[in-house]
């Protein structure tokens, strides 16, 4: 054996030494990610998703908590406590991390006995265990299966009021450490699985059992259990308690069901609207109402309940007046309504409330995802629902989401276009047929664009909100059909709408409103015979109103002003509704636009999510789109009829527009251009006429040669029309591709369908008679 070999220790000695050395402790788990910590804290998270600056926190003290359980049953009688609302991807680890700065900030209360230094801070692991015990999650089964996005968690942080009315937060670190010790070693592994379970996402309103018609049926079934003709008091109380319990657990999950419930009560059981409203509110403590009204879902419900209370006015039964007065005061405090005298309040649409509601948010890693073709898709959250606002798009100056949408108007309407009213005439049916056929050139019912100068553009004809004659008109009709749905999606965020005159910034008088809105019942002479009614207008349709009466059929406005009501700052001036000037520069900031140093306007995707969810959730918004799409033929006629009849020379022959644009193909090409760039259609028609006339004059005697002229003019118009330049080729191609497209044969589920456009002059007779 060599000296070197003799110097090496024996292999057995190495093994013994290794065996004698204690194993290294396992590496601590990584801290919770921002996704896991996607938690919204009451009165701590700001409406924009930011956190309350530490300098603005109330004082935090470390003492002894009065309540040692997160059971909601103890909330009504115990001290007020902070609440957390769980966002997408959140888990118990993340919740512990979210409250750690508050829990570990508290200094000892001067009146408490000094504690050991070891009681001053809690570790992440201790916080997780303490929360599990406090919330009862250490008792099998461990999985909190009922936890969904929006779930409210009552926290072990108590809210105290120190004279003279100064709030402070109290934590109990010593108690929490004791709770953490209750987790036995053999439970540790199971608990670590529990604290990493993310909350379940809320279902989309396009999923089975959650679509609008299914929701209506579910509510009708529930209301069908109430005794007729007079519901029993215990039935009303049970329904109110059911709604209240759901809101207190998760103010986001059931909001669409709750709004539908209140709608059907007003429509089918109007005598129960007030009793059910009082039954819902009767069990709320002032603190519970404040927490609920702070959330977007709870605030939306409370606004609807306020409407129910306000609607009754002074016609409340004497026996109910004390309860109504208490309910109004409760809602006024929860919504932050502005006082109107000593014992009354303005509604949330009359003056700006001082409680801006807070929705849930996404963590930075959740804001984008890849589409199947590799494009970035903007994501956002509306009422706790994850919404794809659209793919990343831009026009050089404006950047934001755009989505074709997934709701086909043909599938929505079916074989019976009931939105046109009973027994619609030939004019409406012909126009509807063209609307259907050109729809693929724009978008679907839930289509969206938030990436150009139109700001928000929605739906099957991409109506824009930059001016007062497009999307504001659609939304005004929607507001008339479904004021509850309008408030749910748009009113709660500050939007209001008023019929307006031609002057942009001048408050219109009734006669100026009438001048600008010829197809609306006159404001100055409301009893005028209905000669003002447009042949392209349909009666507003919807389920809103007492006994299903629905809105009055007052025609269709042409100009509707965008009005905005800001939330009032607590203790500051009370905001009033303000008309907003037309034009992109005056409006993009209202819809999440922000200009960067390069003068590019970047839109937050939130309004894309709001608009898409509104279309997916409210059938009335889709109906308003369909009716306004048909009414576009009236708008087009008004614009081009001023230039026509066209003449080949001053004082020469006249050629009426209704004869020139008399084929399905030509009418579709014109209306399609009007959707895209309405202000250029008349001039482009004139260009097409003159280009065709230069090759062969038109005699207007109804000969085959004249028909040939009209077909050539239609093609020349497609070439001449100035649509959005980035998609002119595809837009023109899509129209030409419909030329004489073959009939689609019937299938087992669907009848035969004719998607083609007839190019023969005379195949479209939907213009007004001469």
UniProtKB/TrEMBL annotation:
Residues 1-21 have a biased composition (Low complexity). Residues 1-38, 510-552, 743-770 are annotated as: Disordered. Residues 22-33 have a biased composition (Pro residues). Residues 743-753 have a biased composition (Basic and acidic residues). This is Uncharacterized protein. It comes from Actinomadura citrea. The lineage of its organism: Bacteria, Bacillati, Actinomycetota, Actinomycetes, Streptosporangiales.
